[in-house]
Amino acid sequence: MNSIVLRAGEGRTVWVVGDRYTIKAGGEETGGAFALVEAIFPPGGGPPPHIHRREDEAFYVLEGELAFHVDGRDIAAGAGSWVTLAKGSLHHFKNVGDRPARMLIVVTPAGLERYFLEVGRAASDEDGDAVAPTPEDIEKLVAVAPQYGIEIRVPEPA
C-alpha cells in the first residue's frame, strides 16, 4: 500500500449520471484492498437499482437525507448513518432532501472506482452542484457495467 495525502477537494472527480464522485483512494493506492469515494448527490439524485457481484459496499452519510432500498427493505439514512451491503445485494438510494447529500463510499476489494472513472464525465470546479445526465451517459453506464460485475436494473418507462 502506498502512503498518500489528499486534501479537501482533491482526487479524481467525475460526474456519473448526475452525481459527483471523487476518488480519494483506489486500488492503485491500496494494493487492491479497498477504494474510498466521496460522493455528492443533488436532490433526487442517486443510482438506479443494481447489484455488485465483485465487491462489498459501505456508506457513511456526512450530510443530507438518503433513502436506501436494499433487498426489499427501506432504510432512512441521515448524517452519521453507516450502511453496509454485502455483494449480491439488490440496492439503490436516493437523496430525499432539498439540498445535496454527501457521503463516503468504501468498496472492498477495490475496482469499482475504475468503473466510475470509465463511465463518468470529468468534473471541474465550475460545474456547480449538478450536471444533468445525457441519454448517452445512461447508455454507457449500462453497457460498461457487466465488465465490472455490475448488473443494473433500469426501470421501465412509465
Descriptive notes:
- With 158 residues, the protein is mainly beta.
- The protein has a single domain (12-149), classed as Jelly Rolls.
- Helix content is 14%, strand content 41%.
- It has three helices and twelve strands.
- It has helices at residues 27-30, 112-119, 135-144, and strands at 12-16, 19-25, 35-41, 50-52, 56-63, 65-70, 73-78, 82-85, 91-95, 101-108, 121-122, 150-152.
- The strands form three sheets. Strands 8-5-10-3-2-1-11 form a seven-stranded antiparallel β-sheet. A three-stranded antiparallel β-sheet has the order 7-6-9, with no helix packed on it.
- Strand 1 (12-16) and strand 2 (19-25) form a beta hairpin.
- The longest helix is centred in the C-terminal third of the chain and has 10 residues, at 135-144.
- GO terms for molecular function: quercetin 2,3-dioxygenase activity.
- It comes from Tautonia plasticadhaerens.
- Residues 39-106 form the Cupin type-2 domain.
- This is Quercetin 2,3-dioxygenase.
- Its EC number is 1.13.11.24.
Estimate what percentage of residues fall within beta strands.
35-45%
- Tell how many strands the DSSP assignment holds: 12
What is the helix fraction of residues, given as a range?
10-25%
Low-confidence runs of at least 5 consecutive residues: none
Major sheet characteristics: 7 strands, antiparallel
Mean pLDDT across residues: 91
Count of alpha/pi helices: 3
CATH topological fold name: Jelly Rolls
CATH class: Mainly Beta
Q: What is the N-to-C order of secondary-structure elements (H for helix, E for strand)? A: EEHEEEEEEEEHEHE
Give the terminus-to-terminus CA distance: 48 Å
Give the C-alpha Rg: 15 Å
User: How does the overall form come out from the CA principal axes?
Assistant: globular
What structural category characterises the helix and strand content?
A: mainly beta
Q: Which CATH architecture would you pick? A: Sandwich
Strand order of the largest sheet: 8-5-10-3-2-1-11
CATH superfamily: Jelly Rolls
Total discrete domains = 1
Keywords: Dioxygenase, Oxidoreductase
Pfam families: Cupin_2
Protein name: Quercetin 2,3-dioxygenase
InterPro entries: Cupin_2, QDO-like, RmlC-like_jellyroll, RmlC_Cupin_sf
